[in-house]
Write a structure and sequence with these properties.
Layout lengths: L3 E5 L13 E8 L9 E7 L5 E2 L8 E3 L21 E8 L8 E4 L2 E4 L1 E2 L13 E5 L22 E2 L1 H8 L6 E4 L12 H7 L7 E4 L4 H7 L6 E8 L10 E11 L4 H12 L6
Parallel strand pairs: 6-10, 9-11, 10-12, 12-13
Antiparallel strand pairs: 1-15, 2-3, 3-4, 5-13, 5-15, 6-14, 7-8, 14-15
Helix pairs in contact: 1-2
């Protein structure tokens, strides 16, 4: 039996905010007489029906400060050691207080992350993963509906300032398309991406269902997150990157091996 469990936290299909271009798939080559190859392509379509590019925010993705802040670092200027392998504190919000929860299409989830939801032991971790339960709505394509972003989970200004004060924290992650709602004026983004001298990067549009199926009612307190960005959309002045994200955790009885594995991954030499 393997000593580790690896769980894919990326969605099975594109998920994006209602204002973003819709995603369409069309064949570039179709197999037939005289052609044995099959190749599919993906592009965005805006409200006018025009083909536009595919954004860096249509799937699990990492926000760079330049996404919001004109003087912020673009993705190509980020140190990969700040996101590739992260010792991560999981914050399981499945059983939080009713006043910070919401129900949409029979999915009950935590919708407002505030100071009482933050654990006191974040110092020393590279990342925090908020498991709100919102990603259960992905399969209904709900996040892309008009007005859906008003019901996204969000991090309050007080909670964002508290997270920014954790000096070891490099990344904040969530199972929702954003850390903000439209009426918050992107306050969580402003505080976290704007932290100096090093920002807290935002890892958004993760899923939590596979992790929940693996562990049931109680998610592990700690996982190793690995973030593998897609660089094919460009590397200069990019506002972020689509990324495959995995959570690693120990099988029962193999916690010591997991700790060694985590440190080996975090300290691996990076060849550019």
């Amino acid at each position: 039996m393997s000593r580790l469990v690896r769980v894919d936290l990326s969605p099975t299909d594109y998920i994006h905010m209602p204002q973003a271009p819709r995603i369409e798939r069309r064949p570039i080559f179709s197999r037939g007489p005289g052609n044995e190859w099959q190749m599919w392509g993906v592009y965005g379509v805006n409200e006018a029906g025009e083909r536009v590019g595919l954004s860096n925010h249509t799937w699990s993705h990492l926000d760079a400060p330049f996404h919001l802040l004109p003087s912020g670092a673009s993705f190509d200027r980020l140190d990969p050691r700040n996101y590739l392998a992260l010792r991560t504190r999981v914050v399981d919000l499945a059983h939080s207080v009713p006043e910070r929860r919401e129900t949409v299409h029979d999915v009950d989830y935590h919708s407002r992350i505030d100071l009482p939801d933050l654990p006191e032991d974040l110092e020393g971790f590279d990342a925090v993963l908020f498991a709100t339960g919102f990603s259960a709505l992905y399969r209904r394509r709900y996040p892309m509906n008009d007005g859906a972003d008003a019901h996204y989970p969000n991090v309050t200004a007080d909670a964002a300032r508290c997270l920014a004060g954790v000096r070891t924290l490099k990344v904040a992650a969530i199972d929702a398309p954003s850390f903000d709602k439209p009426d918050t004026d992107a306050i969580a983004h402003r505080i976290l991406l704007g932290r100096h001298p090093e920002p807290v990067l935002l890892l958004e549009t993760l899923t939590i269902e596979r992790l929940r199926r693996q562990y049931g009612a109680a998610l592990p307190r700690e996982v190793l997150l690995t973030v593998e960005p897609l660089r094919a959309l460009g590397s200069v002045r990019q506002d972020g990157a689509l990324a495959s994200v995995y959570a690693w955790a120990p099988q029962p009885g193999h916690e010591a091996f997991f700790s060694e594995f985590t440190e080996a991954m975090r300290s691996a030499a990076l060849q550019s």
